[in-house]
Amino acid sequence: MAARLPVLTVPKLRYRCAITSRSHAGARHPARQGKRDIGDDMRRAAGRSGMARKLSATKDAAAQAGQPLTVSRPELLKNGSDRAFRHFVHDTLAFAARIQEVRGRLGGLIGLTSTQYTILITIAHLDNPAGVGINAVAEHVHLSGAFVTIEVNKLVAKKLVSKETSLEDRRRVNLTITAKARALLDELTVVQAPVNDALFADLTTEEFDILRQIMTRLVDTADRSLHLFEFLAPDGRGTDDA
Fold first, then answer.
1. Domain residue spans in the chain?
2. Where are the alpha helices (DSSP H) in the chain?
3. Residues 106/117, Cβ–Cβ less than 8 Å
4. CA distance 106 to 98
5. For residues 228 and 222, what is the distance between their CA atoms, to the nearest angstrom?
6. Number of neighbouring beta carbons within 10 Å of residue 84
7. pLDDT tens digits for range 18-44
8. Is residue 107 helix, strand or coil?
9. d(Cα 108, Cα 118) in Å, to the nearest integer?
10. Fold of 112-199
């Protein structure tokens, strides 16, 4: 009687291979045929499920680490781990804190908060003979128009910004920096320029261009991420079925 091997399981197929006696040498060997069929099906299955295997490996790596992944996109994972991603986020937070500190100190040298200083230099850089609108400033600094309006009024009170109603649209306000503000900003460059140089000292021209373009894209994806957060946790907490 022929010996029987255990059932071999592959995607969607089950094979039972039998080893026949040597007396059937002239016939096709079912065990060999079964192995060939199994190999063909497994290769086809592998070709159809390349991405599925990557995701499975990702989940396995997370399970072995004993903690869930904080990101699932394959592009953001290294060997199934989110460690590089988390390191990148922490470095980004550290750099953001430092650049914010630099911005705050520069503003402090001329008696302004970090936000007021940012708005002032934005008006200066976007300045044109007709002035700059509130919405243009808000879009540039990625803040709400209402918040920018409040801070602009403080700058007006300090006589650093002039605010005039547009002749073309009475609903629009044109902003320009005053001579006082220009003098302060010019004096500030003695500290501002070398500090900014040191802040980005390790970047080449090519790296700076790449980073600048990537940061613009990341600001947009960050906005979409916040919208998604509001959808998933509108009250600031996770959903019951999450």
1. 112-199, 202-242
2. 30-48, 50-65, 83-109, 114-125, 134-141, 145-157, 179-199, 205-232
3. yes
4. 12
5. 10
6. 13
7. 333 444 444 444 444 544 555 555 555
8. helix
9. 12
10. Arc Repressor Mutant, subunit A (1.10.10)
